[in-house]
Amino acid sequence: MYIIDTLSRHRLVAMGIIWLLLGLVFYTDLQTPLGFAHGIIYAPVLVFAMVVPGFGSRFRRQILWLSSLGVILGYFLTPYAYNMTEHYIITNRLLSIAVLVLVYTYS
Question: Which residue, 42, 47, 55, 83, has fewest beta-carbon neighbours within 10 Å?
C-alpha cells in the first residue's frame, strides 16, 4: 500500500509508469509468434491504473480502450503461428478483451 499511496501523490510518475507498462506489453505482444497469450498481460496494467487513486474514469477508460486496441492490433501485426488455427487465436484474443472489460467493470 505504501507504493500506491506514494504514486497517488505523484500522479505524473504513476501515469508514466502506466504508459511505459502499456507500451512494454504491446511491444512484447508484437514480438511473440504466439501473441494471443500476451493479450491477457494487458489486464495487470489496467488493474494498476484502476487502483492508483487520483485518476478519473476518463483516464481509466482510455487505458481500457488502448489495451483492447493493443490486443486487436497484436492479432494483425504479430508473426503468424503456423501450428495454431486462426479460430483458436481469434478466440483467445476475444477472451482477452472480455477479461479487460470484466476487470474494468469490477475494479
Answer: 83
Read off the C-alpha cell for 52: 492508483
> Which residues, including other chains, have CB under 8 Å from residue 107's CB and lie 6 or more apart?
46, 47, 50, 51
pLDDT tens string for the chain (107 positions)?
555 556 666 778 888 889 999 999 998 888 876 655 667 788 899 998 988 888 889 999 999 999 999 988 888 887 776 677 788 888 888 888 999 999 999 87
Neighbours of 100 (CB within 10 A): 24
Q: Tell me if 48 sits within 8 A of 21, measured CB to CB.
A: yes
Residue 92 half-sphere exposure toward CB, CA atoms < 13 A: 16
pTM of the shown model: 0.83
Q: Give the Cα separation of 11 and 7 in Å (integer).
A: 6
**How many Cβ atoms sit within 10 Å of the Cβ of residue 11?**
14
